[in-house]
Amino acid sequence: MVVSFLAILFLLIVLVIAVVGFKAVIMQGRSPADAGTEKCSICLARHPLDRLVARQVGDHRLLYFCRQCIVALGEDLSRVPRGEEAPQKDTGR
Questions:
Q1: How far apart are CA 53 and CA 39, in angstroms?
Q2: From CA 4, how far away is CA 8, in angstroms rounded?
Q3: 83: alpha, beta or left, given left = phi > 0 and alpha = psi -120 to 50?
Q4: What integer is the mean pLDDT of 70-87?
Q5: Is the pTM of this model over 0.90?
Q6: Helices first, then strands: H and E counts in the chain
Q7: How far from chain centre, in Å, is Cα 5?
């Protein structure tokens, strides 16, 4: 009787740990307050998704940019002299 009770208690504990762990994996470490937010890829500040510009790189990677970083990049670009191009990558062809 005692062994059955301990076995059932052990199984319940294992089940609770599995459910809590699965929930943590699904949430990916985010708190409910961070559910509608994402980090800017440049300044790493967290912003609501409706305030970020998303750009896809490759097949599945998304980069998010906030307004302040986009404005700063625009100002940096305006300081680059016209006619000066970025160096091209050697593709080996």
A1: 11
A2: 6
A3: left
A4: 83
A5: no
A6: 2, 4
A7: 44
